[in-house]
Amino acid sequence: MAHICMLKAQLAQLRRQEIENQMKGAGGGGDGWDVKATGDARVGLIGFPSVGKSTLLTKMTGTHSEAAAYEFTTLTCIPGIIRYKGAKIQLLDLPGIIEGAKDGKGRGKRVIGTARTCSLILMVLDASKPVTHKKLLEKELHGFGIRLNQTRPNIYFKRHDKGGIQLHVQLPSAPTFITPELLRTILLEYKIHHAEITLRSDATVDELIDVIESTDKIGMLRVYIPCVYVCNMIDKISIEELDLLDRIPHYVPISARDEWNLDGMLETMWDHMNLLRIYTKPKGQIPDYNEPVVLPASKGPPSVEFFCNRIHKGLMKQFKYALVWGASAKHTPQRCGKDHVLE
């Protein structure tokens, strides 16, 4: 087991070094890649060439994105805007990636680099193609530090100048995968001799390596992004094949060309983005239900202070208290301070 852990750590280091070398040697920019993030959330369309990403962007946003019967029609990043439930969502049509994209083939590293900035990934798949395409795309994203539909490991890791390796376990029982011996083996591969590690969850060896690699002094930060698998072109398959696809977690079937189930896809997107709508109420008037303040709740419910700073950075200088209605209030209305958590 120790030998396998050592090999996993070595592979992670080699993969990181290869990506860093390619990024250093990459030349020039390109129009459309540095698209300014706008709206309340950013969604990226990822997939192989000719799976209907451009058609989907056009149908959802009204923004024209060239679509044709040949591959690589889209050669740059094209943005569009969706307005849904009061939220403004930026949708990015990214060029199709090929196998080996994480290793620099095609425009892969630029596409995946843009995907790292998204709050949700829509992985567009051709329903008539093998399901193995999903695994290939996941592999490409995983190799560039993107973890799909995973939560960040609850592991505390910090280097020290002295003191040796200190492992603290905050679990009801002994860890299933990580032992002090395995931990030392992995850290020695990174030439780390003094560090403090606290396990607050029963993490795997791969999750531990992700945490180590994410530190500033070592490697690429891992990003944890929700993903919806959009099976497009369902008009090409039978009902029996559609039933088989229905077993895929986080999946939604659509036909972009025929506009089938686009509303269902929007609802699934909303559920995965975990956004919280907050309505402001002027004194003596009814709440404004047309223009909510939309806040991300993926890292936990936001506070009153976070909400105020989202409206204007100088608002907290004049803040005394807030009157809150809704699920987070014990009574209606509740007079709350800046640390009150909104739900």
How would you describe the overall organization of this protein?
The protein is α/β, with parallel strands linked by helices. Helices cover 29% and strands 21% of the residues. The chain is built from nine helices and 15 strands. The chain has helices spanning 2-25, 53-61, 108-115, 132-143, 180-189, 205-213, 239-245, 262-273, 304-311, and strands at residues 41-46, 78-84, 87-93, 120-126, 146-148, 155-159, 165-169, 195-199, 223-225, 227-232, 251-253, 275-278, 293-296, 322-324, 334-336. The strands form five sheets. Strands 2-3-1-4-10-11 form a six-stranded mixed beta sheet, with helices on both faces. Helix 1 (2-25) runs parallel beside helix 5 and helix 1 packs parallel to helix 6 (205-213). The chain is globular and about 60 Å long. Residues 25-32 have low confidence and may be disordered.
Tags for this model:
alpha/beta, about 20% strand, about 350 residues, 9 helices, globular
Blueprint of the fold:
Elements: H1 2-25, E1 41-46, H2 53-61, E2 78-84, E3 87-93, H3 108-115, E4 120-126, H4 132-143, E5 146-148, E6 155-159, E7 165-169, H5 180-189, E8 195-199, H6 205-213, E9 223-225, E10 227-232, H7 239-245, E11 251-253, H8 262-273, E12 275-278, E13 293-296, H9 304-311, E14 322-324, E15 334-336
Parallel strand pairs: 1-3, 1-4, 4-10, 5-9, 7-8, 10-11
Antiparallel strand pairs: 2-3, 6-8, 12-13, 14-15
